[in-house]
From TrEMBL:
Domain S1 motif, first and last residues per copy: 39-128
Keywords: Cytoplasm, Endonuclease, Hydrolase, Magnesium, Metal-binding, Nuclease, RNA-binding, rRNA processing, rRNA-binding, tRNA processing, tRNA-binding
Cellular localization per UniProt: Cytoplasm
The protein, known as: Ribonuclease G
Taxonomic classification: Bacteria, Pseudomonadati, Pseudomonadota, Gammaproteobacteria, Aeromonadales
InterPro entries: NA-bd_OB-fold, RNA-bd_AU-1/RNase_E/G, RNase_E/G, RNase_E_G_thioredoxin-like, S1_domain
Record flagged with keyword tRNA-binding: yes
Major place of residence: cytoplasm
Pfam families: RNase_E_G, RNase_E_G_Thio, S1
GO MF entries: hydrolase activity
UniProt entry tagged with the keyword Heme: no
Gene that specifies this protein: rng
Highest taxon of the lineage: Bacteria
Origin species: Pseudaeromonas sharmana
Family note: Belongs to the RNase E/G family. RNase G subfamily.
Length: 489
């Protein structure tokens, strides 16, 4: 089976789906009105210094001030004295920056929920084969290039291009690439950096100096070197633009580009549209009959595994082990698909065998190996939980596609009809004691009004006898289940 990238383009939104062996693995969404900030470079202004947090807030022209920690202020920037560079340690934030100071920063994490963007002064500019590091004289080589001979060859080629502007990191995609292509990349990145420096001199504070590539181009750049068989694009204009881009920067990918002109929407291929909908649900069914429950909160994500309808063929311990093994692959896929990051707590079904626990951890690590985001898995805790982290740089799929429920306000629960009925009866009693009224009218949702007329009619009648007054109930179609009004007449 093949590995494909499906690119769906509309004037307001671009979506990219990575499909491996006919199964959706990743979804990337960029809306024109809410383009991500990661990689963007800004001329910011320090708006507030927080010594207690060893951090500062930086105004980059966004609605929320961005966050810069002292550890993200690096030696090869204008923030740190040149004499400190050789023996750099994280210093006091109050000595590194001052309020009102102009500062050039790059976004490393998009704003998430109530938090502003996370910044660094360690500016980097990526290209096809290299990452440019302004102000550094260093040349590094990706650890994924294993051959020492190839690593040394690449390092020597790039070292010749290092000057006062900066150094480079050689990306995995550079393996086997000739000297000419690497030199072209270095010259391109230097031109780009000179343009950024020029804008820094001319632009006012709180303005953008460099904007990262749009999603379709960024994905193409980031997936270079991946084992892709086809890149299908459903927009003729975007297809032509990507073709020009690949011809200039990634010629070996030109033949993989394909303009999709099918009758059905491109995301109907491989059932992508329905898979996205399923990725927004809490429950994930496993083929064996077991299932996962995934709960995403601001602090962390929790994943609970259950055997469900799976009864196995041998004994209980074997059934539990097989369910947990199957769950590891499903968890790895869901983390990629939902783009879940930060702290993740996995509650596997309890296993008595130490060998089973070891094999489940091994299976989880193998399943996560295909994830391009950095992950770190700790062993089982004393409570039998697996703690892990996954690097988060962009909003999760749920945060992009969903908003807080106006009815439950993010609780994920609403009061039952029965609870609301009893609340209404108590409210009538309270109002009757406080005020002199002849009768009451209750305005409530359709479900609650119906319950007061049917299931709770006896309770309502007893209340009327108790207070000696009539209570009328009127349904309001626009009311939520918890919403009601008690009106005195």
């Amino acid at each position: 089976m093949s590995t494909e990238l499906l690119v769906n383009v509309t004037p307001s939104e671009t979506r990219v789906a990575l499909v491996e062996h006919g199964t959706l693995q990743e979804v990337h969404i960029e809306r024109q009105a809410k383009r991500g900030l990661v990689g963007n470079i800004y001329k910011g202004k320090i708006s507030r210094v927080l010594p207690g947090m060893q951090a500062a807030f930086v105004d980059i022209g966004m609605e929320k001030a961005a966050f810069l920690h002292a550890s993200d202020i690096v030696p090869h920037t204008e923030c740190v004295d040149v004499r400190e560079k050789e023996h750099f340690q994280v210093g006091n934030i109050a000595e590194l920056v001052r309020q009102g100071q102009d500062i050039m920063v790059q976004v490393v994490k998009d704003p998430i929920s109530t938090k502003g963007a996370r910044l660094t002064t360690d500016i980097t500019l990526p290209s096809r084969y290299l990452v440019f590091m302004p102000g550094s004289a260093h040349v590094g080589v990706s650890q994924r290039i294993e051959s020492e001979t190839e690593r040394e060859r690449l390092k020597q080629i790039v070292l010749r291009q290092v000057d006062e502007l900066g150094g480079f990191i050689v990306r995995t995609a550079a393996e086997g690439v000739g000297e000419r292509e690497l030199e072209q990349d270095t010259q391109f990145l230097k031109r780009l950096w000179r343009k950024v420096l020029e804008r820094r001199q001319l632009n006012k504070p709180c303005s953008i100096l460099y904007e990262d590539l749009s999603l379709a181009f960024r994905i193409l750049r980031d997936f270079v070197g991946a084992d892709l068989d086809k890149i299908r694009v459903d927009s003729r204009l975007t297809f032509e633009q990507l073709k020009s881009f690949t011809e200039e920067f990634v010629p070996e990918m030109v033949d993989k580009l394909d303009y999709y002109a099918g009758d059905s929407p491109i995301f109907d291929l491989h059932d992508v549209e329905n898979e996205i909908q399923r990725a927004l649900e809490r429950k994930v069914e496993l083929k064996s009959g077991g299932y996962l429950i995934i709960d995403q909160t601001e602090a962390m994500t929790t994943i609970d595994i259950n055997t469900g309808a799976f009864v196995g063929h041998r004994n209980l311990e074997e059934t539990i082990f097989n369910t947990n093994i199957e769950a590891t692959a499903a968890i790895a896929r869901q983390l990629r698909l939902r783009n879940l990051g930060g702290i993740i707590i996995i509650d596997f079904i309890d296993m008595q065998s130490e060998d089973h626990r070891r094999r489940v951890l091994q299976s989880l690590e193998q399943a996560l190996a295909r994830d391009r985001a950095k992950t770190s898995v700790n062993g089982f805790s004393h409570l039998g939980l697996v703690e892990m982290t996954r690097k988060r740089t962009r909003e999760s799929l749920e945060h992009i596609l969903c908003s807080e429920c106006p009815e439950c306000k993010g609780r994920g629960r609403v009061k039952t009809v029965e609870s609301v009925c009893y609340e209404i009866l108590r409210e009538i009693l309270r109002v009757n004691r406080a005020y002199d009224a002849d009768q009451f009218i209750v305005y409530a949702s359709l479900q609650v009004a119906e319950a007061l007329h049917v299931e709770e009619s006896h309770s309502l009648a007893e209340l009327e006898v108790f207070i000696g007054k009539q209570v009328k109930v009127q349904a309001e179609p626009l009311y939520s289940q918890e919403q009601f009004d008690v009106v005195m007449m």
